Amino acid sequence: MKAHRCLLVSALMLMAASTFAGQPKYKLVWKENFRGNHFNEKSWSKIPRGTSDWNRRMSDHPSLYKVEKGRLVLRGVVNDGLVPDDPVPFLTGGVYTKNKKTITYGKVEVRAKLHAAKGAWPAIWMLPNDKGWPDGGEIDIMERLNGDSIAYQTVHSYYTYVLKQETPRKGATGPIDPDGYNVYAVEILPDSLVFSINDRRTFSYPRIQTDKPGQYPFGTPFYLLIDMQIEGQWVGKADPKDYPVEMWIDWVKMYELKENR
After folding, report:
1. Which entry of 32, 41, 109, 143 is annotated as an active-site residue?
2. Which of 80, 139, 168, 183 is most buried, by the most CB atoms less than 10 A from its CB?
3. Catalytic residue at 166?
4. Is-above-0.85 flag for pTM?
5. Residues near 27 by Cβ (< 8 Å), separated by ≥ 6?
6. Domains and CATH numbers, the chain
């Protein structure tokens, strides 16, 4: 009986050691705490306007950006004469690390507080630094609609968007504190993307064997985007009386993967 018990204990110890050894190990390579009164332009740039749902109201107007009390504040406002020669009804602020801070394999965490408004669509996400969309992939670490108490985390690629493949599943939702700070994270690994909210895993997106192209385009440098978005086909119309609206970013962390599992 004693020998049996020793063998059982040894087996359990080996299993635990194997499990621990299988966990990815990370090295913190960048932390942004938003000190001072302006974001660091060596790391961040304002997102320019584009023609997509998410960026068609982006503006570089200084009232949409503020750094105070150790946090970055991005705003969405009604354009009621703030920029008289701009025809868009709303203006939004957003920043990204394109060509400045990227990660290939590792982990990204962002602690943020999101204010609610009808038609508000704040996002924290990642795009490839040197490849186009959708072939290069997209990692949505957080999207929130209106005043929801959940956040969406999603993977996009040629495989999911063009070929419309549903296996493996490309997204999930997780609960958030709608009135407080939450930590949104993704781990970018050679074999999977692992998403979490407040250190609780929401889902993982694995690399699989398939004859269809573009299933796992991850493993190239990706940059981070943080932006306030207003209106769009997904979130619907905004109610001007709910604005201005803000998203507060407390900190950002990027880790490199130290060793493969």
Report:
1. 143
2. 139
3. no
4. yes
5. 255, 256, 258
6. 26-259 (2.60.120.200)
